[in-house]
Specification:
Layout: E1 4-6, E2 19-21, E3 26-29, E4 42-44, E5 49-52, E6 66-68, E7 73-77, H1 80-83, E8 89-91, E9 97-99
Parallel strand pairs: 1-3, 2-4, 3-5, 4-6, 5-7, 6-8, 7-9
């Protein structure tokens, strides 16, 4: 069955967390601002029903090494702050509506 509803903005209060694995659920809405999670290394939100754009603020997460957002309904561009980030593995396609 999985988790449904929106990604809670209160995740941003978990400042010591290093990994968030919420892939393969029925999460909806947009990706909240998680810029307070300075130690976050892995963010897995793939295979949900998220909409909107990928937040520019994710590029501010200096420790981020893995970002999984495939198979959602995201659109727009991948922010330059993420595209240019050294050592970051990004999985955005298939299943989104990204432009170059």
């Amino acid at each position: 069955m999985g988790i449904s509803g929106s990604v809670p903005s209160s995740l941003a209060n978990l400042t010591a967390v290093t990994q968030i694995w919420l892939g393969g659920n029925k999460l909806t809405g947009s990706i909240p601002n998680l810029s307070t999670l300075k130690g976050l290394q892995t963010l897995h939100l793939g295979n949900n029903k998220l909409e909107g754009t990928i937040p520019q603020s994710l590029g501010q997460l200096e420790q981020l090494r893995e970002l999984f957002l495939q198979n959602n309904n995201l659109d727009g561009r991948i922010p330059d702050s993420l595209r240019n980030k050294k050592g970051l593995h990004i999985q955005v396609s298939p299943g989104n509506h990204q432009s170059s």
